[in-house]
Every structure is written in structure tokens, then in C-alpha cells.
Amino acid sequence: MAFRGGRGGFRGGRGGGSNGAPMMPREFDVKPDFGPTEQFPDYAIPFQDPLTSTERIHVARFRDHREKVHSGPLYTVLGKRKGLEDPFEDVVTYSAKKYHRQKRKVPKLDSRPYVFEFFPVELWETMDSSYAATGDRSVVISGKKEKKRLLISSLNTDLPNGGHHDDKSDGSDEEDEEKEKEKKSVLAKLMSHKDEEDDGLGDDDEDDDEDKEDEGEEEDDYQDDEDGDYNAEQYFDDGDGEVDYGDDDGGGAAWYD
Amino acid sequence: MSDLQALARTIYETCSANHEKLYTSNELLSHVPKRDAQVLLSTINELLGRGYLKTLKQGDAFVYRFVSKDSVDRTRNLTPDEALVYQHIESSAREGIWSKILKTRTNLHPTVLTRCLKTLENHRYIKSIKSVKYPTRKIYMLSDLTPTIEVTGGPWFTDSELDADFINALLVAIERFVTSRSFPKQKPGAAAVGVVIPFEAGYTGYPTLSDITQWVKNSNLTEVELSEADIKALLEVLIYDGKLERVIGGTAYKAVRRVEGAVKQGVTEAPCGRCPVFDLCHEDGPINAANCVYFEKWLAEI
Amino acid sequence: MQQNAVELCTILVRDTYGELSSRVVAALLEYGRSTLHTIVRRAKIPEKVVKQTLVVLIQQHLVLHYTHEDGGRDATHYECNWLQIYELLHTGRIVRTIEERFGTEAASVVSNFLLLGHARVSDFITAYGVSTKPKPNAVLPNGTTISASEATGTAPITSAAQISKHIVTLMQEKFLVPVQIHHMHPQVDTENAIRQRVTAEQVGSAAAMQAKTKKAIDEKVAEKMEALSNDIDNKNFGLKRKSDQQDGRARKRTKYSAAQPADEEEWEIDGSIVLRANNAKFLAIFRNEELVRWAESRIGKATSQVYAELLRHLEKNVIGHRTEKGLVDGGKKTVVSTLDIGNTLSKDIDLVNSIASGPAITNGHKRTMANGHLFSVNDEESDGDSDDYDLDADVDDNDMGINGTHDLSSTAQEKKEQLQNIRKHLMLLAEDPNQFVTKQEGSMQYGGWTVDTQRLCEALRIRELEQIVEERFGGIATRLVRIIKDKGKMDEKGLADTALLRQKDIRAHLGTLHERGFLHVQEVPKTAERLPARTFYFFYFDEKMSKMAMLNDFYKAMSRIMQRIDHERSHNSMLLSKADRTDVKGHEEELLTKKELTDLAKWKRSEEKLLGQLMRVDRQVMMFRDW
């Protein structure tokens, strides 16, 4: 035992085991660096290969889709907690109230028809307030649901590079912006709930009925909290009982802490 | 040589010109007047005793080899221990002998052995060499010998160190050669300049191993003799480098088509891909996406 | 589920559906399957709001649910469908794919299904019919020009009939698929329910043989699970033949040949079915696009175009099923014939000048090289030649049938040449070491081709992995990884020998690769003491582990990109909220200052750059996880 140990020591002292077996663990050990380290040490930051026209279109469509969801009834914004608002940026001015896109704190659900059997029973009431868990579904379907309609939106088919500025990312920027703007303007008209004037967007499938329906929705939105959208703090006035979540209780106290 | 009898001297002078040659006793007998076996025996004994001759065994018969005068002079001045060590080293010829084996064979005390080796090395009688196979062993051989390929590691080694520059130069040259044979020459006035088009399926003009070996031989790239096996090792490396691939059932080689910008990058082209502090990056930590200076710089490159 | 994936999914949901949704999702992802009350507790959101949010998430298929009927006290569990959350990243590409293949109208249909999650066809058509009445005036009020695609593009969807037509097409090609109740449940629950039912049936009859029963039950469960997906595999599921059409005709025309127009007009949708976009099918499309790119880089543009055409024929039957081993196309496995490709391939593709024919083939089966070197054609080659002769004969026969003469008309001659040329490209694809296509001997009159996507994706992953190693750690590291992958376990010495590199030069590379999870080490002690110096270290490559390590890095990098977008957005929040105002939109030039306009443009470029990068990483994620 002692003999073998000694031999091992001897060989180790000669620097490296026999037969080329290196002392791997030493190599893997991260060298301890006791000096002060940079938080972001310098390194050669990679370049992005310029996006191809195809990629830019994908990005544009992605943004467009997201934008539609944001304008739709399902997107929610909780707003800032009391005390965290920026006193300059978050000032609620008249124009802000009037022109800003409304922000929902809870999704708006009662405007569209549902396939009830796809949902657990415990949510049916949430989906349709007239729905009693024990009620007859057919009544709901034939009765109230008839009036509800899916919200359909048109597709924005702008090409971010106009389709022919493939690799001149610099030169086409301005045009891109223009297109972008155009897209936005089309979208804005389409999706805007406040845009009462139907100025005929040509190919874009906007419609009076939809507008009217939207207005209707808007009223719906306000019925939950009359104070409008920007009173976000109210939502978080924990436990004061000012916020009415309907027949619900609990939870609210702990929300957002 | 004054120490030798006239006959012994004559025989030595006639035969020692080639000290690689092995002599049987019959051959030596021809040099002895009247072919007197008795005289030969005493002469051989004389030569052996003074170190001018060595006995070797070939099959069942003894053969003799003459030792160069230098060698004789060398051994002459050696102590018995040194001579013993010298003999063992000498017998290892171009393979060399490991110090540890020397120790067990000579049965000398380590310090004595070390001293002997030092003396011999100082006299430049022996040299210590590095074996590619056992880079940590101390191996000795006579100083005027060249080590065998097993010891040197073959064409890739210079002084038992892998010659990276030599290898790389060969790799580049071979890759270039194979590439030149992998794609058709661009016709002048071809539709698109710079577009590399492929040979049709079933094309058999791709270079084989022997084509490539032949080309290297004729190319004056190197003086070193390279066998097909050596070239094959280089080709393997080029395949592992993703530069070449085997075609036609593995019998020939073809360059992998390289197209500028064809390689789609993903994560490695984002700041995170090679970020040195990636592991430390956390949303709520001191290093995060919002305060990241790499993103800052990356985004500035628009 | 990996922590980095949880983070990414939470961010993705927040980005698209907002904070409430993301908090519920975060609670579900972090703690797994939960009941309503558990979610309320963990997400710290009032029950009513949780319920509302769950409706949103279920509607979007981001959350699955299952109710156990537990003796009157039903318990509903919710579970996050994180792969579907990840699919949020693909919305743009999905819409664009349909846009390219079927035009804007169809794309808008798919886009709306994406927005709606799922919808009953009748509801969908009604909504469309009402909200898309044609406008008398097709001019933009502010005089801006209508973008190119819109100006030349298709007319707006006006009638229910038109939408139905699009829906039928999209259904037949499985871009839209019917949603059934079991799609709303976690698969394991569906399976358990079936197992329970099957077991109940078996009990009593053959209770004696336990082992046998178990096997029988397993088989039956598997069978029933398969039956569930088979419904959707059926090409015309959810469609019914129009009553005024004669039976049988449509069926007969359902052949491979894509040259014939689809028999869409003869089908109508069952209005009561519920549809959604089929994400798995799109994954298959994206995969094929990647394969085409790969073929292009390896062989050439024209060949890749032929390949794309071939894949498009295959795609028609693809449904897409995610499996452990990758994406299974499902549907009928088809062979595409050279003729099929010839019928649909664009005539603009230069098939001739994109391949260099070797030295002229002489009848003596000898070829001359440019340098005068003679060699005989190998066996493989003569096979190809004989095929060519077959092809000629076929075309001739065909031609005779039409013209009654051996003289080829110029169109027939053209056709024949085209087919031969296409075949040359297909042979290149087949001969490539990656075997982009496989030739089906004798299965089809003009030669048929199949594609083994799973094997190809395996090779694609390996290539990608090597490329990542190359970009991150350099050429030597790549060489080492390839050697280890090729030879199995190796020690440093063996590696250095094969790589023709010095041991000391590869040691650091091996260390880094090991540290980053690309290589693994096995220690084999030479002695019982396990001394480091007396131990062999064998390096090996474990694809599964490397894949996991890489995916983990990908998810993290993607999260960082999203977070950076958030940061950039909040950095510009005041400007963005101003630009978002309804009175400002469309009038930015007038209402924003010059600086604001510059900043806005800069923000948009930044976001585009970041999103573009996100999608590039997404491509790698799909490669390693989905395909």
C-alpha cells in the first residue's frame, strides 16, 4: 500500500501520469480570479446578418397579430402600482383619456359566442353571466348567444420592404417607415373603438356594423368600473373593499403584493 | 591499434570498413594464413577482448561484427559501469532504451546509473531522445543514430513535436486540390457569375485517395515521403472539419459546397450566444437584459 | 420542464395576452397541474378574475383542463399547454405562409382563427359575412397610396360562400383542423379515461389472466387513442359532399396528382364543427422550408426549387403529429412522381444550366475526362442510364397514344426534356450523403420519390449542432466533436492522434466543450485509489444531453431578447403611448416632433431587429425540439 502510494507520488512529481493520461480535473477547474471583475467583460459582440425580406415580413405579421390581440378583448394591462407611477409620464390628461387606446384590466368575455362543451362547467358562468351551472344550455345557445358575434379583423398585407428592397436595409428605411405608418393608420382605423367616423378604408373590411358593435362593447367595458381605464390604482387598493369584483371575495386582498 | 597483433590488425583493417556487415567465422577464416582455425580463434579472442569485435547470434551460428574505431576508443576509456550502460544502449539500436529498463537490465544503483548516463552524454556518445509514444519517458540511444519512425511519430513530427504548421499547410493544399476537382470550371459567360453549380449525379471524376496521394507527390509540397495512409489521415481530418466528404461509396472525395451567407445563424449571432456572463444573467439579477451593454452595442449596429 | 422554458412562456403570454394571463400561466407552469382554488392562491388574483383569464387561455388552447367525476364532487384541473404557448411566436410566419400559398383572403381566415383560438364554422362565417360588406369607395381618405399587394391583390372577402370555399381548402389541406373535446384535455387524462372504460369492459370476462388482460387493455387503449387522431387524418373530416353533386365523382378525382384542381367546390362544411389552426402542420411546412434551404446550400438553387416543389406535393397530405421522436407527418404517405413535379414546376427555373453534365456519355459506357483520362462508368451510373431509357420509352408511348405517331411534337419533346432535367436534379438530391430524397424503384411510371424527413432532421440537427460549436468554440472544437461523435468514447491521446493536433492544444477545447455541456467525460480509474493521475478520461458525446443543454440556452437567450424589447419599449413608453393615440395614428408626420419621429423609427428598427433575431433562434428551437 505504502509502496504503491509512493510510486504514484513519484510519477505525479514527474509531471503527468504515464501513458499520456493527463490530469484532467486540473484543466477543468476554473482558475480562481480574486481580482475585481468587470460586470460585463469585453468580448467580440456578434453581428446580426441583416434580416432578409422574408424575415422582415414574418416580423411584420407577428407584430400585426400581436397588435390585433392587444386591441381585442383579451389583452389585459394591470397598470402600475400605487406609488410607482411616473409623475410626469403617467399624468392623466384630458387628451390622454380621450385618445388613448383603452386598457383592460380584465378580459372582456361576454361579447363572443363560445363552444361551451370545450370548457369546464365551473367556468360557464364566467363566460356567460346568464348561464347557471345547472341551467339548460340549449336555452342559452338559442336565446342569448344568437346576438353575439365573433370579432373578425382584416389582414394587413403590407410588405415591410415594399417587396423589392431586399438587401438595401439602409436605403429602404424611410420607405419602410412610411409603409409601417400606413399600416398603422389602416390598423388604427380598423381596430380603434373610438373611431366613429367610417371613412371608407377601401379594401379593408371595415364595417359599420362592427363599429356599432364596438361601441356597444365599449359601454360594456365601462360597466365594470365606471371610473374608466386609468384608475389603475383603484384596482390595487388592497383590502379597502372599494373594488367590487362582483360576488367574489378573498384573493383581492392578496392580489399584487 | 597498436595494441593489436599484426594479424588481428590486418583482419580488422580489411573487414571494418563496413561495420554493419556480419561475418561468419568461415568468412573470416579466409583472411587467416593457411586457414588455420586455431589462429583465427585466438585472433578473434584478441579482437573481442579489446572490443574491436562483437559476437552476435544468427540462428544457431555465431556471427561477428566489427566495431568502428571511434567506438572502440570510446569504450576503451569507459569505466566498466559506463561500458555496461553503453553496451545496453548500443544494443537497443534505433529504438532506444528507456532509463527504467536500463536500470533493471544493468542492475546498477540509480545514482551510479545517472552518473554513467551523464558521462556518456557529456562525451556525446549517447543522446536522450523523446518518444512520441511515451513523451514522458527518458529514452537513450547512440548519438549517431536516427530514431525509428515509431519513436519519431512519422512524417507529422519534427523533434517529436507534432508539426502543426506542416500539417496545416498540407491540409490547406489538399483541400484546395479536391475543391478544384469537385466543381465544374465556370464557363465564361455563364448565367450567374460566382454561382457554383454541381456536377450531375453519378459523376465519377472526383479524386480518389491514390489520385490525391499522387498529386501530393508530384506537387513538391514537401520532401517528406507521404504514404497513402498519411494522406488518408489528412483527408479524415478534412472530413472532420466539414470541408470534404466521401462520395461514390467512400472511394472518392469531394469538397463540401461553400456558399457565402448560406449558413443561417441563430443564437450565436445574438448577444447572448457567446456572452461571457450568460450564466450569471437573471431577470432580477445585477446582470440582466435591460442593463446589458452587449445588447446596447448590438442594437447600435443597425 | 426547464426553468428557462417557463420563463420564456411566461414572457410570451405577457407579450401577447397581457399581464393577467401571464400570471395565471406562470402559476400553472411553476406548480404544474392545479385546481381553480390553487391557482387563485398562487397567482394572488381574485377568483373571478382567474376564471375570466382561464376562459381566455382555454379559448386559445394555452391551458388544458380535465374534470374528474369524483362521485358528485367534480374536480377540475388545469394544466398549461406550454408548447402551444410557444406557438405564439409562429403567428406571423403562419399567416405569411397561407398568404403566399392561398392569397390574402385565406390568410385573413387563418389569422382570425389564430385570434379566436377556435370557432364554430357557422359563427365564423356569420361574423365574416356581417363585418365585411364591400365598400362603395375604395380610396383612402388621406390620399395615401394603397400598398402594392393590396392594390393588385385579391378583392375583399364579400360573401359567405367565398369564406366557406377558403375554409374548405384550408381544411382539406389540414391547415385548419376540427377541434374535438379531447383536444381540450391533457392527453394523459384522455388516455386514463379510455383505460378506465376499457378496463371496466374487460373486468368480469377475463379477469383471471392478469398479465394477458393488461396487455390487451394496453393495446385497446393505444388503438382508441389512435382512433381519436384518425378522425382528423381523414381528408374530408368535417366536410360533407354537397347534396346536389353526384356521388362518386369527387372520390375518383382524389388522387396524388396535384395538377388537377382540388375538388373543393363539391364539398361544403358541416357548420356545426369547430375549427382551429393546425400548428403542427405549419411546423412541418417550416421544417420543409429549412430542408429546402439546406439543399440549396449543399447543391444549388435550381435543385432546391425542384426539391421545394416535391415537398409541396407531399405537404398536401401532411397533418403533423408531435411525437417523442419528432414531427410525424401523418396522413397518407405518398410517393411523388417526376411527372407530378413537372406538372407544377415553374417554367422559369433554369434546369439545364444549373447542372454541369460530366463529360459526354458515349455509348461504349466510357467517359473521357477533360484531361484525357479514361475511366469506365461504375454500376450505379449505368443504373441511372437505363432509367433514362425507360423514361424515354414512357414518354414515347404516351405521345403515341395522343398523336398516333412516333414523331414527337414539340410540346411533347419539351415535356420529355423537362422531365429528364427534373430527374437529373432529383438524382442529385438522392445521391447527396444526406439523401434528400429516396428513389422508389418501379413504384411509378416516371419514377417516384419519397422523403424521409425524420432521418433528414436528425442529420440537420447534427449539422446545426456542429455549426453552433464552430461559431462558439472554433474549428478545432468542431473537429474534436465530430471525431468523438464518429468514433465514440475517446481519450485525449487518441483524439489528438486522429485530429493531428497536439494534446496540449486540444485540452482547453475539451474543457470548454465539457463545461458547456457539449461533451461528457467518463472516468475509468486504473487503480482502486481513483487518483486523478491514475485515471483514464474518456470523452463522449450524448446527443440528447447536448440537445437539452442547447435548448436551455436557446430559451434563455429568447427570454433575454424579449426582455430587451420590453426594456426598449419602456424606455420609449411616453413616445409610444403618444404615437398610439388614436388622434396621432396616421398623422404622425404632423403631430410628432422631428425627434419623436426619429426615435419612433429607431424603436421600430430595434424591435424588428430583436424580433428577427428571436425568430432565428426559434428556427433552432424547432429543429432541436419539434422536427
CATH class of the largest domain in chain B: Mainly Alpha
Summing up helix and strand content along with how strands pair, one would put the structural category of chain B as alpha+beta
Give the percentage of residues in beta strands of chain B. Answer: 5-15%
Count of discrete domains of chain B: 4
Strand order of the largest sheet of chain B: 1-3-2
Determine Rg of chain B (CA atoms, Å).
33 Å
Low-confidence runs of chain B: none
**How helical, in percent, are the residues of chain B?**
40-55%
Write the layout of secondary structure elements.
The complex is a heterotrimer of chains A (257), B (302) and C (627).
Chain A lengths: L1 H12 L10 H5 L24 H19 L22 H6 L24 H4 L9 H6 L30 H19 L16 H17 L7 H5 L21
Chain B lengths: L5 H10 L6 E3 H5 L7 H13 L3 E6 L2 E6 L2 H9 L2 H12 L5 E2 H8 L3 H13 L3 E4 L9 E4 L6 H4 L4 E2 L2 E2 L1 H19 L26 H10 L9 H13 L3 E4 L4 E4 L37 H8 L2
Antiparallel strand pairs in B: 1-3, 2-3, 4-6, 5-6, 7-8, 9-10
Chain C lengths: L2 H15 L1 H13 L2 E2 H8 L3 H13 L3 E6 L6 E6 L1 H5 L4 H12 L1 H13 L2 E2 H11 L16 H5 L7 H13 L3 E3 L8 H16 L7 H24 L5 E3 L7 H5 L13 E3 L4 E4 L1 H20 L2 H15 L5 E3 L2 E3 L7 E2 H7 L21 E3 L5 E3 L2 H25 L6 H22 L6 E3 L7 E3 L2 H21 L1 H13 L2 E2 H8 L3 H13 L4 E6 L9 E6 L2 H29 L1 H7 L8 H4 L2 H33 L1
Antiparallel strand pairs in C: 1-3, 2-3, 4-8, 5-8, 6-7, 9-10, 11-15, 12-13, 14-15, 16-18, 17-18
Summarize the structure.
The complex is a heterotrimer of chains A (257), B (302) and C (627). Chain A is mainly alpha-helical.
Task: Provide key terms for this protein.
heterotrimer, A: 257 residues, C: mainly alpha, Arc Repressor Mutant, subunit A, 5 domains, three-stranded antiparallel beta sheet, 26 helices, 18 strands
Structure description:
The complex is a heterotrimer of chains A (257), B (302) and C (627). Chain A has 257 residues and is an all-alpha fold. Helix content of chain A is 36%, strand content 0%. Chain B folds into four domains: 61 residues, Arc Repressor Mutant, subunit A (Orthogonal Bundle), CATH 1.10.10.10; 76 residues, Arc Repressor Mutant, subunit A; 93 residues, Arc Repressor Mutant, subunit A (Orthogonal Bundle), CATH 1.10.10; 34 residues, no CATH class. Chain B is built from twelve helices and ten strands. In chain B, a hairpin with a 2-residue loop joins β2 and β3. The longest helix of chain B has 19 residues. The termini of chain B are far apart. The mean pLDDT of chain B is 84. Chain C has 26 helices and 18 strands. About 15% of the residues of chain C have low confidence. Chain C is 59% helix and 10% strand. Chain C is globular, with a radius of gyration of 29 Å. In chain C, the strands form seven sheets. Chain C has a three-stranded antiparallel β-sheet. In chain C, strands 4-8-5 form a three-stranded antiparallel β-sheet. A three-stranded antiparallel β-sheet of chain C has the order 11-15-14.
